Amino acid sequence: MEVRKVFLTEDEMPRQWYNILADIKMNPPLGPDGKPINPEDLAPVFPMNLIEQEMSTERWTDIPEDVLNVLSIWRPSPLVRAISFEKALDTPAKIYFKNESVSPPGSHKANTAVPQAYYNKVFGIKRLTTETGAGQWGSALSFACGQFGIECKVFMVRVSFDQKPYRKSMMEAWGGNCVASPSTETQTGRDVLKESPDTPGSLGIAISEAIEQAVGDESGQTRYALGSVLNHVMLHQTIIGLEAKKQMDKIGEYPDIIIGCAGGGSNFAGLAYPYVYDKINGKDIAIYPVEPTACPTLTRAPFAYDHGDSAKYTPLLPMHSLGHTFVPAPIHAGGLRYHGMAPTVSQLAAEGIIEPKSVNQLAAYEAGVLLARTEGIIPAPETNHALAYVVEEARKAKEEGKEKVILFTFSGHGLIDLAAYDKYFAGKLNDYVLSEEEEHKFETCFENNPKPELLKSC
Amino acid sequence: MEVRKVFLTEDEMPRQWYNILADIKMNPPLGPDGKPINPEDLAPVFPMNLIEQEMSTERWTDIPEDVLNVLSIWRPSPLVRAISFEKALDTPAKIYFKNESVSPPGSHKANTAVPQAYYNKVFGIKRLTTETGAGQWGSALSFACGQFGIECKVFMVRVSFDQKPYRKSMMEAWGGNCVASPSTETQTGRDVLKESPDTPGSLGIAISEAIEQAVGDESGQTRYALGSVLNHVMLHQTIIGLEAKKQMDKIGEYPDIIIGCAGGGSNFAGLAYPYVYDKINGKDIAIYPVEPTACPTLTRAPFAYDHGDSAKYTPLLPMHSLGHTFVPAPIHAGGLRYHGMAPTVSQLAAEGIIEPKSVNQLAAYEAGVLLARTEGIIPAPETNHALAYVVEEARKAKEEGKEKVILFTFSGHGLIDLAAYDKYFAGKLNDYVLSEEEEHKFETCFENNPKPELLKSC
């Protein structure tokens, strides 16, 4: 019997997060006046302790004991060797994954939800607001807020709210409150509903509602939480890669290839950044973020200053972006349908330290089904995108006859997304590739930016 | 930080199952003629290697290497100390659970699905049929058949099929085929549909369809599989308790109290039987199977000879039974809505070695929500019943001021059952208690039995 799983004890959990900002030079986020923003500018939206973390360039940050205690409900997560998947692919490659689907909400999102709830709690915040698309982030934040006894309000994009009723149920099981967005609870929501009562909603609208409700609470006890893109989110996720390193050490392995799906970038960054540190320090390792061809932020969009949301509430962030008004094709991988990409991931791509790849929807589901039928776990649609590229690398290893070591992050399970698998089996899913026309639509988004010139053309 | 989880390595997995039949004396199953059945009588339904296991009285059975290899996808399962749940209950009791929700199909059912698929495969069987109510068993068997490359056909009770579409999707993701029962694929199904086209179906009908299709395959390459009740199913599940013992040993603990929910009995037996062995050999330990007040097989029904299915296809089994025509109230815990109870569990209850308890539906969901909000995992409705009794024992420990060690089995997660939680939160779930009238209905079931006298009145 070959060993499949490598565990760490709770005592072996990393005690610090790794901050990539210590090792790369970034362009600063800009305010509406085109000047770098100050911590105070963000104070109505986030608590100051998280803003400090967002701007810190210290390489290591201690993980608070209370955060470790909650993370230990499911962490350290298992490192799994996908033996049966390897056999089905008939590859000499060794394929390992960090199984982030074991968290209560079912994905890596809990890794940052827990510290975000904790820091807000410590800062005296009584209530968090957020938006959610596919529902993974809203679930994770509801779970985390429940652990620290603070309220959680989730604005869930109407179309997902209707398609995935179980996500709302999960949030409520943990004590969260979830409403369809646009809602009648905010001015933004009421305005949209007046204009188009039957709108399916969008992430842009939901973000605007969540921020409006957070900054509008006159008691000052409400803040907003974001599940990806920002530096502090990437920081919290590095526990994935830090654990993976310890686990690989235990079995005397080191990866040749790192793979993770990337929507806003946090799942990818979580596994990759500790290895990016190694690469910057001379290690020979290939690192691939994988995105859908329908929303090819890193592979086809320019590196520019753009807003994180369609309503332009956020500062201008230096990132690969398809434009803040971009509406991606309706692929069934909600977590990857985002117009931008975390600034740090964008910067690493621009510098050639990581090498972005894109895969199509049908290849993603095909790989996901193969994984389910071999390793048992049914992957989230987002994870399927990583898997499709794992399959490509495994085939390449076979052609080259090389025993490469591939490590990827299994971002979440697909148990609440089974309707998408039904569509796949029924032949109702399509491939989508961004058209050239769409590719150039973004340019109008950048026209009025205070610093419109592209940082680097894609 | 207190340690929450105790893991075993794959090398530490038990290599043998424990057979309770070595340590208790049982009444034999009877055929239609009132005489004990022979192995050959079961040969059209099950493969001979499993029939031998069903009738074996050897204390230990080796677990085949190929079975261990598949079990190692998720086993050994974690032993978890429910620290946050304890704190919420303010109890001096230490509460541990075996987390069986970590299997790919999400419950303990996979522990027997895998060996059943394996033994059928070894015997040359190409296709398995089965029924499923809530869907846990059908999912588990689909997963297991996929691992050994045999076909799986699941007849799912129509009402559950319509209420829980994700269960069908799961089965299909693993390559299984699931149809609503009654179906047009069997004579039984066609007859029922002719009579009542709008029937919601029943487990009785679904079993009949599955057996009909298995024995009706003239190639002899199809057999039927059952997910509970039978001796070989209990045998396979003992891996739960055998692992738990090793894990408790590692932290120097031994339980005072064992708790498991019991529908057909396999989840309970899996944890309990290795401890029953200790109890028979002098250990002071309390062992409680927990059932719903709506279907109180062990706590209110007689111990008698009865059929396992409503169509009387099965032999007469010596068991606690509400009568094979009993239709339990529509509680949201499908896995506990069974008229009978495993003969071995029934025998142990009759001998007073285990002490059955019953709990009501609302107390079960209340306990489940508390567990979800403290420990994170959302439990299956069946697991909630065990939890309700854990809460009772934890309160008792508090009243008595005793640091008791409670160990229960967390049979599965509730991610596919979230609609039931919605009903609970909306105040749409009710308590059900069996009426005295219902309690005596069963007697008519036994009238025409070849050996109708009760083995022991309840």
TrEMBL record, chains A, B:
Domain Tryptophan synthase beta chain-like PALP: 74-412
EC number: 4.2.1.20
Catalyzed reactions: (1S,2R)-1-C-(indol-3-yl)glycerol 3-phosphate + L-serine = D-glyceraldehyde 3-phosphate + L-tryptophan + H2O
Keywords: Amino-acid biosynthesis, Aromatic amino acid biosynthesis, Lyase, Pyridoxal phosphate, Tryptophan biosynthesis
Pathway: Amino-acid biosynthesis; L-tryptophan biosynthesis; L-tryptophan from chorismate: step 5/5
Names of required cofactors: pyridoxal 5'-phosphate
Record-level GO cellular component terms: cytoplasm
Listed GO MF terms: L-serine hydro-lyase (adding indole, L-tryptophan-forming) activity; pyridoxal phosphate binding; tryptophan synthase activity
Residues with PTM N6-(pyridoxal phosphate)lysine: 109
Listed NCBIfam families: PRK12391.1, trpB_rel
Family the entry assigns: Belongs to the TrpB family.
Subunit structure: Tetramer of two alpha and two beta chains.
Function: The beta subunit is responsible for the synthesis of L-tryptophan from indole and L-serine.
Protein name as it appears in the record: Tryptophan synthase beta chain
Source species: Desulfonema magnum
Protein's gene: trpB2
